[in-house]
Structures are given as structure tokens and as C-alpha cells.
Design brief:
Elements lengths: L3 H24 L3 H35 L5 H25 L3 H33 L5 H15 L1
Helix pairs in contact: 1-2, 1-4, 1-5, 2-3, 2-4, 2-5, 3-4
Amino acid sequence: MTPIDQIMQHDHERLDQLLEQSAQAVRQGAWQEAAQLLEAFRHGIVDGHMVVEEGTLFPAFELQEGSEDHPLTALLRKGHQDLRVFFEEMAEAIADQDAETFDDLLSTVQTILKQHDAKEETELYPYLASALADQGEAAGKRILDFEAEATS
């Protein structure tokens, strides 16, 4: 089984590509395609990636660190909340066919994701294989299954 840190990092890359494809569709004025791609991105990150992190990975990290309210996971959860709001605003900009607002939001979201993902990839994921009793296999399988569902 691929280590959980590699699976989660790969999922970051896959989701970044979906977001970029949505942005490309906005630049081309392909609004319906942009909306579909943004929804695929939102579904993948909110309903898949974040669910695995918040339901399995963050609690495992907190258990290892001995704190249910660890500053790192508190920061990452706050980032997830903020990103969810931005994703809704991006969808509204697409529905309004407002490329300028979408681009402004995209720039903000990409900056947040870059910092957020770097924190996860350097501070959180490296510890998880040892923190999870199954070395992250169950969480990794959930992400891989979610990816497979998204591409079918």
C-alpha cells in the first residue's frame, strides 16, 4: 500500500489540476464546463479530502500529540472552513459569468491552498503513518476510492 502521506499529496495535486481546469474554462468563457469542473473540485476536496482529514487524520495526529485542540489541526480546520466559503463564492462568480471576481477569488484560494497544503505535507502527513494503527491504509483507501469514483 502506498504511504498515506504520498496518497494525500497526490490528492492535493489532482485537486489542484481540477481547479486549474475550471479556471481555464472561465478564461475561455466556457461557463457550464467551468461550473462542472469547479463542482468536481469542490466535491473532491470538501466531500472527500477534508472528510478524511477531519474524520481520521487530524484526530490521529491529535491523539499522538496528546491534545484534542492542537494548534496545527485547529489552524488546518479553520483553513478548511475559510476555503468552503471561498468555493461557494467562486461558484456564484461562475453562475454570474463574472470572470474578474472569479480570478480574484482564484488567486486568494490558490495562495491559501499553497500554504495550507505545505503545512499538511511537512508537519502533519509525515507523522501519520506511525500514528495510525494501520499506517493510514484505511484513510488512504477512502481517498483512492473517492478518486476512482470521480474519474468514472
